Every structure is written in structure tokens, then in C-alpha cells.
Amino acid sequence: MKGGIRIGTIFGIPLFIDPSWFLIVAFMTVGYRADYVRISNELSWLFGLLTALLLFGSVLMHELGHSLTAKAQGIEVNSITLFLFGGVASIDRESKNPGAAFRVAIAGPLVSLALGVILTVVTMLLGGQAIFEVLSTIKQPAIDRLVAEIGAGRSLIGAMAWNLAQINIVLGIFNLMPGLPLDGGQVVKAIVWKITGDRFTGIRAAARSGQVLGFSIMFLGIMSLRYGLFVGLLPILLGLFILSSAGGYLRFIKLQQALMDITAESTMTRDFRIVDADMTLRKFADEFLLMQDKETQPLYVATSDGRDRGVVVPEDLRRIENIEWNEQKLQSITKPLKSLDAVELKTKIPEVIKLLETKELKYAIVFSQVGSIAGVIDRGDVIRALARRLGWPIAETYIQQIKTEGKFPADFRLMEIIEQLTDEPKIVPKAS
């Protein structure tokens, strides 16, 4: 989750609020106000709002549990965002081993459960053992006696502490349910990763479990509609969120696996033209450049004596006076093979993408086993190879647009995905 309204920084981590957060705060304020009005009508709205805000403070503590554990492992935390269903911490990369991943996953629920215990103790200190029974009743005389004994202020604070204690305990237990994107899913992933030695298998198992969990929660929500629209709607929305997120994890690892499986050889094209290195610049210009579409410049490979000599960049002609074009050979502006940014046939496509992006190249040369030019790869070729492997319905006209612009689609953050792959100590690609 990206974007939202930035409200500050905590422990060096940018903190954002998604617009959906305001909606749920409003609903919770109204809901908790109904609890507190039995204690004090005048202060019920204030304590309803405080409870809603402190609830998200608890969610923030939960996410900080994950974030600070990740930071202790040297992992950068990009942001924490509070939204409709709680919060999410955006970390820079995966933990390096299943044990470290387990610690990051379990930290959040442990913080929530610890807060639940602490707030339960606070509730008891404020009102004694009897406060739990009184706050659980709907009988006004019992609540009136509590207010008479300890005062409206302590009663309100005790009720708020008890509400927050229960929610934190529920939050901790719920997040331990075994399915992505919940923390319990991350725990499942770490355990399966440890057993199999394959992170992909761990993610796949946890995501499938998340899909089952999402369907189950949606079913419970549908069954609960008979008790009221709000009672059933919230579980349905939550189930849809879990189901969508779990599916996102599955799509993501399929993309990662495709990146690890695809090679330069299966991606490259022979979208280049062979030219004689011994021809004059004038002949080259007349035969290959004058009639050429300027938006689709092919790569020119200069050869002589049956060997590739290098690559010709047409723009280099501009540095030479026209009067010399009749005398100079194409060899004079040919970039030697050794100076080219190139990869080998078996190079994995992440290395090709890194080369294209870090050096801002329009294309990368692919060398054959004998050192000649076997092919060329640009960003459009990369997208085509991924689409072919993953079954994406991408039109060839869009591929050609990417080739012309020389940029990956703005929302297609391949470098971020590749950096996560690079940070992995061991990845065992598997067929989907």
C-alpha cells in the first residue's frame, strides 16, 4: 500500500494515513460512544473518539513491532500506513532466512497481546475485579453503582482500557490466523520455507491458506447478514481484502519465478542489421539511413572477413564532416565488441534489466558462446518474454510503444522486485 496522507515520522519511519482511515474512525467513535453514554452522556463522544484513536495507536504499535524487528536485521522500512482494516508496514526486502522472517512476523501479534495484558491490568487497577463484570452488563443500576464508587472519570478510563485490551487481544489472535496477508500467514511461510528450503514454496502455501481463510470469513459474513447489514458487511469486506491480497502474493511470486527462469537467449530478438564494415560512410547513409523510419532505428552490426567487428551508432555520423563520408570507412565509427554493454546467452533476465536501468541503455547486446553478436534485448522484449511466460494479454502495439519510448511502464516496478530477488541468499525456482 502506497500513498495516503503523511502525518509524521516515528523511529525514522514515515507514517501515512489512508483516507479510508477517517471512515473507520468515524464509525468506531459512534460505536464506542454508545458504550460510554451509560457512564457519562457529556463525555461519551470524547471518549468514543479517544478509543478510536488509541485503537489505531495500538495498530501502530503492532506495526512498529514488525518494523523495528526488521530494522534490527538491517532491513529498511519504507513506511507505515494506517487504513480501513488496520495497518501495514512496507519493508524494503525479505528477511534473509526463515528464522529471521519468523521473528519479524511474530513481533506484531506479540506486541498486541502484550498491550492486551497491560491494559487488562490497568483496568483492574482502576476498578478492581468487579469492573469487568460491571462493564460487561447492560444493566444501568450496576454501572451507576460503579460510577458512585470510583467516579465517572475512572469509570470512563477503565471502560476505555478494557475495550482496548479486548481489541488488542483479538487483534493479536486474529493476526495469527494462518494465511497471507495476516501475520500468521507470514509465520506459515517461514515454517514451510524452513522445512522445504524454498521461500517460494512457503509463500505459495501461506497464500493458498489465505485464500481459504478469505472465503471462510466472507461466508461467515454472508451468514451474519441476518443479524444486520453492518454485522455481515464488515466480515465480507475483510474476507474480500484477504482474498485479494493472497491472490496478489501468488501473482507476485509467479512474476519472481518467471524472472528467475527467463534467460537472455529466450528474450532476445535478432532485431539488428548486418552491414559491411568496409563500406564508406556515404554508402551506409544512402542505403540504410535515408529511407529509415527515425522512430524505429534498428541496431547495425558491422562485420568484415566473416567476423563481427562492433556496433554502428548512426548518431556518430554527425560528428564527421559530410565531405569525409566518401572516404572514411564504416569501421572508423564502429564501437568495438569489447566496449559494448553486453550479456551472455544464459544470463538471467534480472541481470539484463539491471544493466538496462542502471546504465540507462536503450538495449543490451547478447553475445554468443563464440563472442559474436547473437541478439539484442530492449525493454519491450523483456515485457514480451514475461507476457509469454505468464500469459499476460499484452498487445504487440503496446510492446512496440515500450520499445519506442525506451521505458518500462511507470507502475511496473521491476527494479524493486529484482532488488528483493538479489537480496535473497538462496532461491530455488520452481515451475508454477
Q: SSE layout and pairings?
A:
Blueprint: E1 5-10, E2 13-17, H1 20-36, H2 44-72, E3 77-83, E4 86-91, H3 98-127, H4 130-136, H5 140-150, H6 152-175, H7 183-196, H8 199-224, H9 229-261, H10 264-267, E5 272-276, H11 281-289, E6 299-304, E7 307-312, E8 334-336, E9 342-344, H12 349-358, E10 364-367, E11 373-377, H13 379-390, H14 396-405, H15 414-423
Q: Encode the helix/strand succession as letters.
A: EEHHEEHHHHHHHHEHEEEEHEEHHH
Distance between the termini: 26 Å
Helix coverage percent of residues? 55-70%
Largest beta sheet: strand ordering: 1-2-3-4
- Protein structure class: alpha/beta
Mean pLDDT: 88
Radius of gyration, CA atoms, in whole angstroms: 31 Å
Largest sheet: 4 strands, mixed
Low-confidence stretches: 424-432
How many domains in all?
2
Overall 3D shape: elongated
The total count of strands amounts to 11
* Percent of residues in β-strands: 5-15%
Number of helices: 15
Question: How would you describe the overall organization of this protein?
Answer:
The protein is α/β, with parallel strands linked by helices and 432 residues long. It folds into 2 domains: 5-261, no CATH class; 264-423, CBS-domain. It is 57% helix and 13% strand. It contains 15 helices and 11 strands. The chain has helices at residues 20-36, 44-72, 98-127, 130-136, 140-150, 152-175, 183-196, 199-224, 229-261, 264-267, 281-289, 349-358, 379-390, 396-405, 414-423, and strands at 5-10, 13-17, 77-83, 86-91, 272-276, 299-304, 307-312, 334-336, 342-344, 364-367, 373-377. The strands form 3 sheets. The chain has a 4-stranded mixed beta sheet with strand order 1-2-3-4. Strands 5-6-7-8 form a 4-stranded mixed beta sheet, with no helix packed on it. The chain has a 3-stranded mixed beta sheet with strand order 9-10-11. Helix 7 packs antiparallel against helix 8 and helix 13 (379-390) packs antiparallel against helix 14. 35% of the residues are buried. Residues 424-432 have low confidence and may be disordered.
